[in-house]
């Protein structure tokens, strides 16, 4: 009864505060939408995207042509061979990248094929000499054949790495081919045979395939929406500390809390009512943000959020997260005397917990020390719980570790809050 | 048993060098209207807070209807109403909603037939549907007073209930308090407006720097200091007399 009255009172108060309403409901929606849009770019699949590479091939022979052809036919890259109608040179190609017009420059030097052939011959000869069928060759003292890739400094590290990786892979393949050819040539020379040696097909040796660790979803990749919606939902829900602590301290300052202290037996109900009300606010926030992921983001051209199909599991996750977030807000409200202290501490602590909790970037890409630290962030537990429910199709038993962590955290915060708020009772 | 029995109470705030209340002994009988007077910072509000158990005395003992408020706070507060010096209301609720909510928190069912006459009585009926933060200072103070009598307390403590209140409303408040006192309510009245105190209070006590420097029946004090106004008594006992 007293709890219900307090919930009603909180509802009226919030309804009459348009700024507070916007902060609680509009900001999270905006946050999730903008973050998903912005972070969509690095998460995007580069298969359908062709990346321009300025390419100068002074080799004009097997190796250079092979690299060019393989890159061009991969579909991920587009080779720029001339600029404003003029063929490029090493210097003009470099210029295009250093001036920032293009992001990468690939340079294959003259005589690359010839030099590679020479080096390969030495390798083959030294292999043969091991069997005593050829003389030991002189040591190869020349430098490696250098294929240069120059990057614009603003290029994203992962784009740079995938480009380098692609070129290295192509070059390794070319090396293999040349080595094989040289080897069979030598063997033919020695045996006097005219038959061509059968070419072994190396592509059939080892195959790396990828598989989903769960069943039931097709073509599901971790994308911007799938990361950002739950992540920023955690952030927004824990940000309940802001309106909650603000509301508590405002009431302390404008004396309404003193009134509660003067009413015998109202204190517990008052605190409980506030807790329950803000718990529901958190729940509404969560539903709102899921709705953004399900309905709004697809309209903006982003993938639709996948939430699995276990409504009960989702509800359990949302409940645990809201209980923890609201309890945290209560503890902060109890711990500080002034608005400024509580709000500053509240905001910064949530930002920090979000950072180590994998809200900005997923936990698995964090440095090891931070990954360990992320274990203490309730936002990380909540996020993990969302991923469990949305993507991994876990059952109740598998949700238990995160659920219990969140509930223990909530209980601890509530206990602390009750102690702190009561302590203010008698100065 | 008296309504209030304060015996050698001292209270010093943390971080303060002098006690806010020093060695205070005071008895207030049931059904009495007691005026608590003193300059700013004399210790009136501190005394009030200790009586309702929201502040703990460092030493001495306080009994309110026989109970120690520091130990049986809720039991004491159930029988005591306090109109605090600082307004204690919910600003974004309307006047009526404030009273309804507080009724519920007292564990009472808000009764329109009880609340509206109260609002009427204090001239707030027309504004009952307006938010409390849109009230003028005097209106807030009147609402604050109503909020402290919702649970029909046996003892009502008023800490400057008429500060910023206009003449008509002040008369309403005084009339109301007289009526409640006639029905048996004990009242502690703290104010700087001595005419009011003179009219209303049967006994008064003067606090100065936390010490009770004089107390007695209003009539006796006027006689003792040979004057016709409490103001002169106050000026004399506080050593701030202008016509020595
Ligand atoms: N929370 C507090 N912390 C520290 N000192 C305080 C606190 N509240 C009051 N005091 C000090 O205690 C003394 C008594 O204050 P109190 O509020 O009881 O005076 P008062 O008689 O009610 O004054 P006024 O007429 O201005 O309301 C003052 O010196 C004041 O500065
Ligand atoms: Mg005072």
Summary?
The complex is a heterodimer of chains A (427) and B (244). Chain A is mainly alpha-helical.
- As a whole number of angstroms, the C-alpha radius of gyration of chain B is 18 Å
Query: Distance between termini of chain A?
Result: 29 Å
Tell me about the biggest sheet of chain B? 6 strands, mixed
- The helix/strand series of chain A, from N terminus to C terminus, equals HHEHEEEHEHEHHHHHHHHHH
**The named CATH superfamily of one domain in chain B:** P-loop containing nucleotide triphosphate hydrolases
User: Regions of chain A with pLDDT < 50 over 5+ consecutive residues?
Assistant: none
Structural class of chain B, by secondary structure, is: alpha/beta
What is the tally of beta strands of chain B? 9
Ligands, deduplicated: adenosine-5'-triphosphate, magnesium ion
How much strand content do the residues of chain A show?
A: 5-15%
Look up the CATH topology of one domain in chain B: Rossmann fold
Mean pLDDT of chain A: 85
Number of domains of chain A: 2
Beta strands of chain A, count = 6
Name the poorly predicted regions of chain B.
Answer: none
Keywords:
heterodimer; A: 427 residues; mainly alpha; abc type-2 transporter like fold; four-stranded mixed beta sheet; B: 244 residues; alpha/beta; Rossmann fold; 9 helices; globular; binds adenosine-5'-triphosphate; binds magnesium ion
How would the blueprint of this fold be written?
The complex is a heterodimer of chains A (about 425) and B (about 240).
Chain A: H1 2-15, H2 18-43, E1 51-57, H3 62-74, E2 77-80, E3 82-83, E4 86-87, H4 90-98, E5 104-108, H5 112-130, E6 148-151, H6 157-191, H7 224-238, H8 241-253, H9 256-262, H10 267-299, H11 311-335, H12 339-356, H13 368-374, H14 378-392, H15 396-423
Parallel strand pairs in A: 1-2, 1-5
Antiparallel strand pairs in A: 3-4, 5-6
Chain B: E1 4-11, E2 21-28, E3 33-38, H1 44-51, E4 59-64, H2 73-79, E5 80-83, H3 95-105, H4 112-121, H5 137-147, E6 155-159, H6 167-182, E7 186-190, H7 194-200, E8 203-208, E9 211-217, H8 218-224, H9 230-237
Bound molecules: adenosine-5'-triphosphate and magnesium ion (MG).
Adenosine-5'-triphosphate binds next to α1 of chain B.
């Amino acid at each position: 009864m007293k709890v219900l009255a307090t919930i009603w009172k909180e509802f009226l108060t919030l309804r009459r505060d348009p700024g507070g309403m916007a902060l609680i409901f509009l900001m999270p929606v905006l946050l999730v939408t903008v973050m998903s849009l912005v972070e969509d770019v690095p998460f995007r699949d580069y298969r359908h995207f062709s990346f321009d590479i300025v390419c100068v091939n002074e080799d004009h022979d097997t190796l250079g042509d092979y690299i060019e052809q393989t890159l061009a036919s991969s579909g991920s890259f587009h080779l720029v061979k001339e600029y404003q109608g003029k063929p490029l040179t090493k210097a003009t190609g470099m210029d295009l990248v250093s001036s920032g017009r293009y992001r990468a420059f690939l340079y294959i030097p003259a005589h690359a094929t010839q030099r590679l052939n020479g080096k390969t011959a030495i390798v083959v000869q030294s292999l043969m000499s091991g069997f005593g069928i050829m003389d030991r060759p002189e040591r190869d003292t020349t430098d490696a054949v250098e294929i240069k890739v120059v990057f614009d400094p603003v290029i994203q590290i992962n784009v740079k790495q995938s480009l380098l990786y692609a070129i290295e892979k192509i070059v390794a393949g070319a090396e293999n081919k040349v080595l094989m050819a040289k080897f069979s040539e030598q063997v033919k020379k020695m045996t006097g045979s005219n038959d061509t040696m059968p070419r072994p097909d190396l592509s059939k040796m080892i195959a790396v395939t990828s598989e989903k660790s769960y069943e039931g979803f097709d073509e599901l990749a971790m994308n911007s929406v799938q990361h950002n919606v739950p992540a920023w939902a955690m952030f927004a829900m824990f940000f309940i500390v802001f309106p909650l602590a603000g509301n508590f301290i405002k009431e302390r300052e404008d004396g309404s809390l003193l009134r509660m202290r003067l009413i015998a037996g109202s204190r517990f109900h008052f605190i409980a009512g506030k807790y329950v009300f803000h718990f529901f606010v958190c729940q509404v926030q969560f539903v709102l943000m899921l709705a953004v992921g399900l309905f709004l983001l697809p309209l903006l051209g982003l993938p639709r959020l996948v939430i699995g199909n276990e409504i009960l599991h989702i509800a359990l996750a949302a409940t645990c997260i809201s209980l923890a977030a609201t309890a945290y807000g209560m503890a902060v409200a109890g711990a500080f005397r002034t608005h400024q202290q509580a709000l500053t501490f509240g905001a910064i602590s949530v930002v920090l917990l979000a950072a180590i909790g994998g809200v900005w970037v997923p936990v698995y890409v964090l440095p090891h020390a931070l990954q360990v630290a992320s274990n203490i962030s309730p936002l990380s537990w909540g996020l993990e719980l969302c991923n469990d429910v949305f993507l991994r199709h876990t059952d109740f038993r598998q949700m238990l570790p995160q659920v219990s962590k969140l509930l223990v955290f909530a209980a601890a915060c509530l206990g602390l809050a009750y102690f702190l708020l009561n302590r203010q009772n008698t100065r | 048993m008296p309504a209030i029995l304060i015996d050698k109470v001292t209270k010093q705030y943390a971080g303060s060098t002098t006690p806010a209340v020093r060695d205070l002994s005071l008895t207030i009988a049931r059904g009495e209207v007691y005026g608590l007077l003193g300059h700013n910072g004399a210790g009136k509000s501190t005394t009030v807070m200790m009586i309702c158990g929201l502040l703990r005395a460092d030493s001495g003992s306080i009994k309110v209807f026989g109970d120690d408020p520091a130990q049986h706070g809720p039991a004491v507060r159930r029988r005591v109403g306090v109109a605090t010096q600082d307004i204690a209301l919910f600003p974004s609720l309307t006047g009526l909603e404030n009273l309804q909510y507080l009724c519920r928190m007292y564990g009472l069912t808000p009764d329109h037939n009880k609340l509206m006459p109260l609002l009427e009585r204090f001239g707030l009926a027309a504004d009952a549907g307006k938010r409390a933060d849109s009230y003028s200072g005097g209106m807030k103070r009147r609402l604050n007073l109503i909020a402290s009598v919702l649970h029909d307390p046996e003892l009502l403590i008023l800490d400057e209930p008429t500060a910023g209140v206009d003449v008509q409303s002040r008369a309403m408040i005084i009339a109301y308090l007289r009526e409640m006192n006639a029905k048996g309510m004990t009242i502690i009245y703290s104010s700087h407006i001595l005419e009011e105190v003179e009219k209303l209070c049967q006994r008064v006590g003067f606090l100065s720097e936390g010490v009770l420097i004089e107390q007695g029946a209003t009539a006796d004090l006027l006689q003792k200091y040979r004057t016709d106004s409490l103001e002169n008594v106050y000026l004399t006992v506080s050593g701030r007399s202008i016509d020595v």
